[in-house]
Task: structure prediction
Amino acid sequence: MKKLGLILVTLFLFAGCTKHDIPTPDQITGTDLKIASAVGIKLQSSFVTSEVAMNVKSDVAQTVTVKITDIANKVVSKSTMDVKAGDNILKVYTNAFPSSAYRIALYDAAGNQLGITDFNKL
Result:
């Protein structure tokens, strides 16, 4: 009887130790980051702790600027990158930001705004 109990406990422990793969931004599919329009920007979640996946969609390959502004409309981060036509999955790291509300805006090389979205840093 003790052996049977020991075997059952061991089986439950092994069954509980299965590996759960966490998807990386390249593996994220479905409607999480899907953008219906030809250009735009979308975050995986509006509530962020340290990092979040972001889809930057462009109708042509171009250089874009991503600006993150705080609630006082002060630029806290700015980066320029080359994107290909279609979906571009990127990561936004927010470890250095204090807890507050932020806005991410996407601009083309001429300074035209292509998309905008908000998030809250927890």
